[in-house]
Amino acid sequence: MNDETIKYLEETIDASSDLFLLQGDVLVQRANTTDLVGTTAVFDGPSGIYVYPDLMMRMRFRELATAHWFWRYASGADGRRYFMGIAAGSSGSMPKITGDNLRRMPLPVPPLAEQRAVAKALADVDALLAGLDGLLAKKRDLKQAAMQQLLTGQTRLPGFRRKWAVKTLEEIAECLDDLRVPLNEAQRSRMRGDYPYCGANGVLDYIDRYIIDDDIILMAEDGGYFDEYKTRPIAYRLKGKCWVNNHAHILKAKLGFDQVFVYYSLVHKNILPFLANGTRAKLNKSEMKKIEIETPGEESEQAAIANILSDMDAEIFALEARREKTRLLKQAMMQELLTGKTRLVPTGEPDA
């Protein structure tokens, strides 16, 4: 966009002291932490709601298309940079935007036809993201239901008849905690490399050597998501070369038991009764061995269940990757379209 399209925000809004919201009004967070100040949204209704002026600023644009244009621009890189600059320079303990510095915000304003075209393009991407979010939620719910049914024997796979038995973790898995070696941050900084350095909840760093080369299950000893076990994992699986610190137990399924089945039996298990009391919840090795798992009598049934759940995880992972690519595409589109680097409507086309 050329300099002629750059206006100050006050040139595009109606001056009004009315604090009751109407559909299409734009709200700007005027006071909060630095990363939240300037958060912007278009109000969709219902009309007549009162906005508290100490927390939010209300703007009413002359054109609805411009309201949506500003919302997109303010949420993009240039808009956030402007608001964070104001927040960093404001006095007091809480960063705050004033009406004056908001009205002085430089805003590239293309013709209305282009504003509408950009709004439609970005809305289409938003709709795609929303569809992916809905599909992901559905897939996760299906997997949760499948785990509940398959890992308890409530639903049996065709061809399997042998009874299930309750086994302790000591009976079905070897504990390899003797292989654990903790490293502090200074030590790791001298060992930068490609091998995962693992802790209670996942990979913490990458170093230039390893102590394990195997398919292992890592289960948090302390610092795990024990209270959130239904929605967050308390165990994870790693294959290949890695280094493990002393905040995760290392488990390997014994002969006759499927490694992946054991993993799925643990990843969202309620182990709160086995935790030691104290200021920091901890799963001691002796208590971990007492954890009970319902187990099919045939390893082939364990493997069949594990394959079904692995396939569901692969679907979810593919959807998550697709959603992330779409999110990055939207981010790139905003940078191009909201700065005029890419134009959707030929220059000089009249507003409609």
UniProtKB/TrEMBL annotation:
Q: Which GO terms describe its molecular function?
A: DNA binding; endonuclease activity
Show the PANTHER family listed in the entry: TYPE I RESTRICTION ENZYME MJAVIII SPECIFICITY SUBUNIT (PTHR30408:SF12), TYPE-1 RESTRICTION ENZYME ECOKI SPECIFICITY PROTEIN (PTHR30408)
Type I restriction modification DNA specificity domain location: 163-324
Q: Which residues form the signal peptide?
A: none
Q: Which family does it belong to?
A: Belongs to the type-I restriction system S methylase family.
What superkingdom does the record give? Bacteria
Could you tell me which InterPro entries the record lists for this protein?
Answer: Restrct_endonuc_typeI_TRD (IPR000055), Restrct_endonuc_typeI_TRD_sf (IPR044946), Type-I_RS_S_subunit (IPR052021)
Q: State whether keyword GTP-binding applies.
A: no
Q: What is this protein called?
A: Restriction endonuclease subunit S
Q: GO biological process: what's one of them?
A: DNA restriction-modification system
Q: Which source organism does the UniProt entry give?
A: Paludibaculum fermentans
Please give the CDD domains that the UniProt record associates with this protein: RMtype1_S_Aco12261I-TRD2-CR2
The UniProt keywords, alphabetically, are: DNA-binding, Endonuclease, Hydrolase, Nuclease, Restriction system
